[in-house]
Amino acid sequence: MASTAPVPELADRAAACADRLRAADSVLVASHIDADGLTSAAIAATALERCDIAFDSVFSKQLDSAELDTIADTDHETVLFTDFGSGQLDLIAEHAAAGAFTPVIADHHQPADAETAFHLNPLLVGLDGSSELSGAGTTYVLARALAARGDPPSSPAAGSQATDNRDLAALAVVGAVGDRQAGVDGLSGANERIVAEGVAAGVVDERTDLALYGKQTRPLPKLLEYASEARIPGISNNANGAREFLSGLDLDLTTDGEWRCWADLTSDEQQTVLSALVRRAVASGVPAGRIDDLVGTSYELSRESPGTALRDASEFSTVLNATARYERADVGLAVCLGDRGEALDAAHTLLRNHRRNLSAGLQWVRTEGVTVEDNLQWFDAGSEIRETIVGIIAGMAVGSSGVRGDLPIIGMAEQSDTERKVSARATHGLTRRGLDLSVVMREASRSVGGDGGGHTVAAGATIPAGTQTEFLTTADRLIGEQLAGGG
Ligand code: C5P
Ligand code: ZN
Description:
Blueprint: H1 11-22, E1 27-32, H2 35-50, E2 55-60, H3 65-73, E3 78-82, H4 89-97, E4 102-106, E5 119-120, H5 135-149, H6 159-164, H7 169-178, H8 190-200, E6 204-210, H9 220-225, H10 239-247, E7 254-255, E8 258-259, H11 267-283, H12 288-292, E9 295-301, H13 313-324, H14 329-336, H15 342-368, E10 371-372, E11 377-380, H16 390-397, E12 409-414, E13 419-425, H17 428-432, H18 437-447, E14 451-454, E15 458-464, H19 468-485
Parallel strand pairs: 1-2, 1-3, 3-4, 4-5, 11-12
Antiparallel strand pairs: 6-9, 7-8, 10-11, 12-13, 13-15, 14-15
Helix pairs in contact: 1-5, 2-5, 2-7, 2-14, 5-7, 7-8, 7-13, 13-14, 13-15, 14-15, 15-16, 18-19
The site of cytidine-5'-monophosphate has 15 residues, from β14 and β15.
């Protein structure tokens, strides 16, 4: 059994969780509303369906006592929590003890101090939940265990992929990429084993390619203009500059007057553009390390049509965020489950709206600027930015003009009349120096009567309105202490 498990460290726990699910009369899949949570739910739903286990699904922004009461009221005797649950283990354990339901958890967030019998989390076995395995990856491990010990499928028509669940690795990669677990060199740790299974199953293509976001669907000038990852003077953030650069190449980069996308170019054409970009970067004095970062590992979903957002793991995750962060998780889930009709159309409409909001939010941060403290920089957008996307915008703002790349960033937005949503983002470089934003968010928020948590590089909290200054002072001190004490 262990030999075929994608993450051997988790094999025993996965088998126990799978056995419990198989014994259930009915399961409620409760999942987090973001790209990782949606892909987790889709992996769980597919695996349960393939085992003939009856289930329903529900999504939630945050698990608190009230949410758990609602879940308990659904009368499913087993609840499978995916991409959250570990952080709320204490609350979940209380509900379980009261006989509300049996919890099974597949998560990668920092576990709260409590125990439960069916708990799958990379952090419990010494793996890094921020970078090595996502919620979707953890749920994939569970899906593989469900297939491994299950009875042979009753319907052979389901095909061989359906029996081992390896085809679900594609969604696990989307979840990991959506949770920002991939660096320029791609995914690492346990995630790499999932990638390998996806490649073997013919659903994932791992390739070395231009490391910019939007290779499948962004017209070339936009691809370069918005390339916050690379920042080449005169091209990044410069619509005219990007167009002039492309027009100056000896290539025909338009079709019927429309700019082509990176994915439509031949490899020779791609090579020509890339070489010219590198030459321009060198000439503009971009440091060698940053030039190297122009090329990296990217993941394509082999079964999706080329030139569509779903083909690229990163663009796919944006499509999902565009649904889940706007109360349309149902649309994202349907897309993950294969709906390429109505749900995909709805997702594209939501995506256009999401892009407008991201661009307006980013513009707001650039115009208003951030306030720099000793160890962090922050902005409070009030009602100017939707609280469900303030974290994405905070992350995108880092490195743009007026926003420092060497400090963590904290973005705030109104969650309700009485609450502020806080999102914190940092670089892996800072976490290597000892920064852990999950601890900062939990402790600083609790000190003002709120709550929070998350991962070392990306974390969030909810705090009472009016406590922002006190919260920031504590967060600034905690970050200073972590960086001073870190190795
Ligand atoms: O909401 P945001 O995108 O900033 O969340 C970043 C990370 O922090 C996510 O993984 C989220 O689950 C976690 N988080 C948390 N508790 C909160 C808010 C966010 O654990 N109150
Ligand atoms: Zn996650």
